[in-house]
Design brief:
Blueprint (H helix, E strand, L loop, with lengths): L1 H5 L7 H23 L1 H27 L53 E4 L6 E8 L30 E8 L1
Antiparallel strand pairs: 1-2, 2-3
């Protein structure tokens, strides 16, 4: 009889299994949404790095010009202004205004509207310029200046639309 008291049935009770299932469910609800937005955040980080790199190339270009101006691509259509920065076969940059300042013109990971990089100068004198990227993550908190005030109608850049949630723009002003 004493041996039966010491011997325990093998296995888990229904209550123990239910508690473990609830704990796993709670953890899954907390962790999975964070993992799902990981690729979006990675693409947004790359977009920001690309825009900052372009800003640096544009500022170096500006400083090297005797006329102190950014590349003037006002004659190009809205979609072609960015590509006009380097007129060689995309994405290499061997000819065009930015050749010598940047070796390849960055391309958005998605590379379909609205996820394409855009460029505009403020006016015909090109004393200011903007590079714009559309971000995917709606929780993005580091959006830069997105104002197009002063950019004439021909050169105004439309804000990101469709599946894009944020507009990230870097403005160069000298």
């Amino acid at each position: 009889m004493f041996a039966k008291l010491l011997q325990r049935d093998k296995g888990f009770t229904l209550l123990e299994l239910l508690i473990v299932s609830v704990i796993i469910g709670i953890l899954a609800v907390i962790i999975v949404p964070g993992l799902a937005s990981g690729p979006q955040r990675a693409r947004d980080a790359q977009r920001k790095a690309d825009v900052r790199g372009l800003k640096n190339a544009l500022e170096t270009y500006y400083n090297d010009q005797s006329s102190a101006a950014y590349p003037n691509v006002a004659g190009a259509s809205a979609g072609a202004r960015y590509l006009a920065l380097c007129t060689s076969t995309f994405p290499t940059c061997t000819t065009g205004p930015l050749s010598g300042y940047i070796t390849t013109l960055p391309q958005d990971a998605k590379n379909s509207s609205p996820f394409v990089y855009q460029y505009a100068q403020k006016d015909a004198t090109s004393t200011s310029s903007q590079v714009i990227a559309c971000l995917e993550n709606s929780k993005e908190s580091q959006t830069a200046n997105t104002s197009t005030v002063g950019y004439n109608t021909q050169q105004t850049i439309a804000a990101c639309s469709g599946t894009a949630n944020q507009t990230y723009a870097v403005q160069t002003i000298n």
